[in-house]
Amino acid sequence: MTEPTLLWDDVRITYAGGNVAVDGVSLEVERGGTVGLAGESGCGKSTLAMSVLRLLPRSARIEGRIVLQGEDVAGMTWGRLRAVRWTEAAIVFQGAMHSLNPVRQVRHQVAEALALHSTKEFPDSAARLRRVDELLALVDLSPAKGRAYPHELSGGQRQRVMIAMALACDPELIIADEPTTALDVVVQAQVLDVLNGLVRDRELTLVMISHDLAVLAAVCDRIVVMQHGRIVEQGKAQQILTAPTHEHTQELAAAFPIIGDPSSRLVVGRNASPGSPGEAGVSTGSTAEAGRAVLEVRDLTVDFRSRGQHVRAVDHVDLTCGAGEIVALVGQSGSGKTTLARTILGLQKPTSGQVLHEGKPLPHRRGALKAYRRQVQYVLQDPAASLNPKHTVYEAVAEGIRIHGLDDERERVIRALTRAELTPPEKFFAAIPQELSGGQRQRVVIAGALALDPTYLVADEPVASLDASVRGEILALLLQLRRDLGLGALVITHDLGLAWNIADRVVVMHRGRIVENGAVEQVLLDPQHDYTKSLLAVVPSKLGLR
Amino acid sequence: MTTSGQAAIRARRRARFAEVVREIASHPSAVIGAALLLVIIVLALLAPVLMPMDRLDVTQVTARGNESPSGGHWLGTDPSGRDVLGLLLWGSRASLLVGFSATAIAMVIGTTFGMAAGHFTGLTRAVVLRIIDFFLVVPSLVLAIVLSTVLSRGLSTIVIAIGVTSWAQTARVVRAQTLTIETRPYIERSRALGAGDRHIIGKHVLPAVMPLVMANTTLTVGSAIILESTLAFLGLGDPTTFSWGSMLKTALDTGAATAGYWWFVLAPGVAIVIVVLCFTLVGRALEAVLNPTLRAR
Amino acid sequence: MTVIETVPADSEDTRGSSLPRYLALKAGGSLISLALVVVLGFFMFRIIPGDPAINMTRGRQVSPGEVERLRQEMGLDKPLLVQFWRFVRDLFTGDLGTSYVYRRPVTDLIGDYIGPTLLLTGTAALISVALGLWLGQKAAWRRGSWFDKIHTGVALVFWSVPTFWLGLLLLLVFGGGLGWFPTGGMSTAASTDTGMAHVLDVAHHLVLPVVTMVAVIYAQYLMVMRASVLEEMSADYLTTARAKGLREDLVRTRHAVPNALLPTVTLIFLTLGLLIAGTVTVETVFSWPGLGYLTYKGLSAPDFPLVQGTFVVFSAAVIVMNFIADLLYRVLDPRLKSS
């Protein structure tokens, strides 16, 4: 009889204040099994993972049994627990920047685990450091990288160091907590490859946590979906990804549309779920002819001075956005797409070239620039941060109206909130941002932009910081504004799925240059440039289907 | 602004204020500090009633000099026979007055310079930063000594000397907070909406730094009171008014300190320690409650 | 007085620039500050209301002739710019003028008195740093415990005490009352001891002034270290360390404390310069023959060239220490060391 490597038996975890993070979860992870825990932020998946090594804050109360290799974790003495930590189960933490000690070389941090648990095999520090080099080689890092401090490594390299550290004492079980979150898609694919190879070669037992079903499917055989501290669906990875049955799983899956699937084109949000009629997302069709050019960028270059060196963020870019057109500007982080957006908005001075609005170049004088800013509005990435926490919804929406000294303030605020689907608007007047959900906050930001009757929107990663289930709502709102008001948008994103969801045209940016520009179907289904092809190869939905 | 909106905002401010008061109330030391301070301030205001000035007139006192504490004179008498408790009461007026007014000056200068150094760029920032840096490195005690040596003697000189030398730390804290606020996306959003410097400073930065300035105020009052007593002790105070510092100076000059007249040395010092400690306790609690970066602790 | 701010004011402006550039920037800033101090030191005594000659003789009976002679002696009959030029020129040759009271070059006087000041502040700083840092990290790690409450409480009380008053009390109790320690000076006047006996004699005299200074400054370091460790307490890398199976005291000493020390060490160097200026009160109380005592003497005379000289020295000490703090910050924190 083989006992499971890890067993949660009717586990309930309550934080101080009665907040139930995990609510009656039973889950078995068999030896050599790979299990993915999926869910949105706050669903209890990280709490569940941390409970295995008793790493939760003291205020957390745990009920039920957590059994690791046949031993009840709650019953261990501190000494036994310390011995078990890292030797039987090790964790790859999320956000490796903060999970590594910033003032120690990474090789010493890996060696520390060996010094604690493996003094027999590696009695002196020279032997341990030799072992560290071997471990780093396992994750495709050169020994030289071991001498680096965490800040000198890239995000992907840090995550690999974390993986090497987790492997140090040959644990049976590895728990990976959002190991690829905040990484670029390309780097994410590399890290997943490393993890995949190790699991296969070393027959590890793996529990991986992510909000992204496709990422889990790329590594795990089995996926468990959590919501509000409970398991709502579990099954084979392929089945969860392609034929989800629970509503929440469907929402999670919809956030990573399959590019090329016509059913997710210009129809997004909850309406994308099969069976429910699409109303908000009624297509205006990609045939909507791009009207006159609202925004034009001509031969634009933006340089920065950083570390005493010149960095060219935007390199001779030409771009045209037509009235009512939704253009997706796609690229990895550092490709210069946000700088381009800020320059279009007049928030960043161009080094050379110009931006034209309705055929007229962007003014430099303050007064004229102010008038221009009324026309083209900005929607930022993180709605929680782009609203002053001290201002009410009314004040936030009225801010632009007051700056421009417009009349009928109340009328305008009501109209803007209604258009952003915050109804009835009066109900939201006195609310402050922290009382709203993420989706509502982003609607307030959009309402603040709409209050000035703009001719065009620039949206920088408008859904990147939102949970999967909210993502669809906001994208549907953008489509609806286009339908009702003829409002076009330049949507900046790293997510090709999003471009497939809502854009008419895709512009691919790489190292400050535009490498491909064309209709969505053309660019995403028949990419010409190598960079576009490489981006498409690592799209999460494809990873899962490999 | 609509009336309903205004009412909602007022209600929210009241609620926030109540919340701050509740949170401060959860720091028992701060509550004790605040209560003691209140008592001391009331006593200082009531000094003319409790201890009429003529009873401290050297020509009219009946007691002998350096009497030890007794029923008639709870804290004894000074070398000229004046009641030490009475002197202490009157001294609190000068000490508190100097503390508060010097702090007011320091806060206005510090907040203005701090916000300017955080908000503006280019030459403005370079110049303002240089000035802040300069006042950070010049030892404030020495600068205050020099200022009060050079200017004419008087309470206002002391206030100016302390105010002008105590603002740099505040400016530094305010600048740090301004820089943090300015990186927030809502400032970027505000700019994209067309806002200018005045709007951003007035609507976003100032309200955000005010809590910190408040906390800093209470801490600075304490150090201003110490600085006042130090200046007085060094013989740079205003010879025409009583303050706790000038009492200690008298104690030293008249030999009360070495002759064993401990009550005249102990009383003003203990008074200073208590008042400064109270301000510090309240300031730290305020800081913990109002400074969002410390809140997570 | 605020102790929460633990990062030098302008660190973020220079982050990422190369070391030589950083050095040049910082050195340039220090030189500007020093120049400002010199200018301020000069003009404050000449432009701000009142005539230095009259101010100097305030409260004393002097004839107009005497004042005029004094003015000539001070060079006050020359135009202001000429005076300033002379002052700056003299400064570059190490000449800070001549003291009225001691009738000696101010530079020589400072040379004579700086040793005892360095001995006093050096000893006090060493003890305070060791005590403050150790208690601070302990208190933070056991936040809310009795250890924390007592040590934080005591530190806050000491922090609220005027230095000179504490000195006075110690002097009364342990000097005058109990007679355990001498009441002033640096060595017993009559003694002709040399060698070890002399060292012990000086050490005996050193105790009370050092205790006074330590009491006031260790408290500040304790609060800074405590705040700094608390800042690191919730850091993710501590969870990593615990997950690896480290004992709590190793988590603290190997991971939390090294990180917390970085901003603290910088802040300590920032305050070390201020300590020297702070000796004015302590040295006055204990008649310790150092720069602070000299300043006090200069103030009571009043002896402007002398006060002006010590003002420049005190400010220069802070500026130099700040420069060192900036360097240390850069050298100690690997995040700022760009390859």
Total number of strands of chain A: 20
- Oligomeric state of the chains? heterotrimer
Topology of chain B as a string of helices (H) and strands (E):
HHHHHHHHHHHH
Count every helix of chain A, treating DSSP H or I runs of 4 or more residues as helices: 22
* Cα end-to-end separation of chain B: 38 Å
Computed Rg of chain A: 25 Å
Give the integer mean of the pLDDT values of chain B: 81
Number of helices of chain B: 12
Give the overall pLDDT of chain A as a whole number. 84
Please state the structural category of chain B: mainly alpha
Largest interface (CB < 8 Å):
B-C, 60 and 62 residues
Describe this structure in words.
The complex is a heterotrimer of chains A (546), B (297) and C (339). Chain A is α/β, with parallel strands linked by helices. In chain A, 37% of the residues lie in helices and 24% in strands. Chain A has 22 helices and 20 strands. In chain A, the strands form four sheets. In chain A, strands 6-7-8-3-9-10 form a six-stranded mixed β-sheet. Chain A has a six-stranded mixed β-sheet with strand order 16-17-18-13-19-20, sandwiched between helices. The longest helix of chain A has 18 residues, at 185-202. Chain A is globular, with a radius of gyration of 25 Å. In chain A, 52% of the residues are buried. Helix content of chain B is 75%, strand content 0%. Chain B has twelve helices and no strands. The mean pLDDT of chain B is 81. Chain C is mainly alpha-helical. Chain C has 13 helices and no strands. Chains B and C meet through helix 4, helix 5, helix 7, helix 9 and helix 11 of B and helix 2, helix 7, helix 8, helix 9 and helix 11 of C.
How would the blueprint of this fold be written?
The complex is a heterotrimer of chains A (546), B (297) and C (339).
Chain A: E1 6-15, E2 19-29, E3 34-38, H1 45-50, E4 61-68, E5 71-72, H2 78-84, E6 89-92, H3 96-99, H4 106-117, H5 125-138, H6 143-146, H7 155-167, E7 173-177, H8 185-202, E8 205-210, H9 213-219, E9 222-227, E10 230-236, H10 237-242, H11 247-254, E11 293-306, E12 309-322, E13 326-330, H12 337-344, E14 352-357, E15 360-361, H13 366-375, E16 376-379, H14 393-403, H15 409-419, H16 425-428, H17 438-450, E17 456-460, H18 468-485, E18 488-493, H19 496-502, E19 505-510, E20 513-519, H20 520-525, H21 530-537, H22 540-545
Parallel strand pairs in A: 3-8, 3-9, 6-7, 7-8, 13-18, 13-19, 16-17, 17-18
Antiparallel strand pairs in A: 1-2, 1-4, 4-5, 9-10, 11-12, 11-14, 14-15, 19-20
Helix pairs in contact in A: 4-5, 4-7, 5-7, 7-8, 14-15, 14-17, 15-17, 17-18
Chain B: H1 3-25, H2 28-50, H3 84-119, H4 122-137, H5 140-150, H6 155-165, H7 168-183, H8 185-192, H9 197-233, H10 244-253, H11 262-290, H12 292-295
Helix pairs in contact in B: 2-3, 2-11, 3-4, 3-6, 3-7, 3-9, 3-10, 3-11, 4-7, 5-6, 6-9, 7-9, 9-10, 9-11, 10-11
Chain C: H1 11-14, H2 19-46, H3 52-56, H4 64-73, H5 80-92, H6 106-141, H7 146-159, H8 163-177, H9 195-233, H10 236-243, H11 248-285, H12 291-300, H13 304-332
